[in-house]
Amino acid sequence: MIRASHSARELVASAQNLPGFGDQPIWLSLIKVVAVFAFLVVMTLFAIVFERKVVGRMQNRIGPNRTGPWGILQSLADGVKLAFKEEVIPLLADKPVYFLAPILSAVPAFLAFSVIPFGPQVSMFGHKTALQLTDLPVGVLVVFACSSLGVYGIVLSGWASGSTYPLLGGLRSAAQMISYEVGMGLSMVAVFLFSDTMSTSGIIYGQRHIWNVVPLFVSFCIYAVCVVGETNRAPFDLAEAESELVGGFHTEYSSFKFAMFFLAEYINMVTVSALATTLFLGGWRAPVPISLWHGANHGWWPMLWFVIKVVLCIFVFVWLRGTLPRLRYDQFMQLGWKVLIPINLVWILAVTAIHVLRDRGWDSWKATALPLALVLIVVVIPALMVLEGAAARRTADRVAEDEAAARLEPTFPIPPMDLVVPTPKRLATTSAPRASVSEGDNADG
User: Fold this and answer.
1) The pTM is what?
2) Which of 23, 183, 348, 394 gives a 20 to 30 Å CA spacing to 340?
3) Which Pfam families match (predicted)?
């Protein structure tokens, strides 16, 4: 019976494309846990300095240059400063929830990285193991669930602070994150259909010939926009709009609790960058010029390609922060619900049709061209006509409002707002002779 159960477990694991994570020693799993934790902490320290340096370069500033060589220890100095600052707890705060909220924000950010593959199977201390903590048949959904749990920390922190502005910031952030989680989840559906699996290692295995960013470019663009809103990063950092909500949901937090919110934000940025690398950018596989080398996708080298891709994705986050202005909240919600989600649904229908037609034996170009042509004729062209008509109506309304305002203008003259009273010329001409006479009298005297 033991042999039968063992063989059945092996058959299930092989059918799910999982490389057998349950048979490795527990000490090896603990080493992986410590390695993932250390990687996230180091990437957080790096991302803080990297962001300040890049934004400083974009704005013709030097950036951090005092703490450590070239300012590379600035993020460590910030962490030490936050850890030793005085902690101020509001009198009206709900203390159990107030203490729990930062933990609910930081812990899921670490857990989400447990299913992200860093590389293929390697030899560690005489054991063959994958460079991944664990994997599941629904590994991508684990990352999605962990990112969703972060909403609870934000909402509870705003509610438990006992103040109005943190509560408004928490509610706004919750609405923002839930709205863009819908678009983010729908952008993953096309990847699941294309790869026939929700396992992260299986998705990377499916990109051994071509990365998913090429056939699923629409899903990649929608995912990129949604994760910026999901992580509360500029230009979608409306939960921390200083001109409206002071500091957002963490206004009443200080010291180490504020540092945990700070840590969760940057770890989430690293996590969504790693997930974008896994879903669309080939994961740990080397790019095309380097992949011609036979050893590029073997051994420990794939970890380097994975980290480079994650850093490039973080650079895009920083680039957006340094260049784009903040949107209004109504524009932001309209983009998510009225633009990204409808495009996502239509794109999922097109990918499903292509998938079904290929399974029925159609040629690849026919199975791809027919659904895309139907989408272009039935959806895209009417949508463009509707948008053009709406723009024309807005222009006509604006012209009508200008004409109505012109008719209501008063007929009597009104002085301009920037009125400058000129100096009278007569005063200038009369003052000159007086000055000359006085000078002559003084000379005669």
Assistant:
1) 0.80
2) 394
3) NADHdh
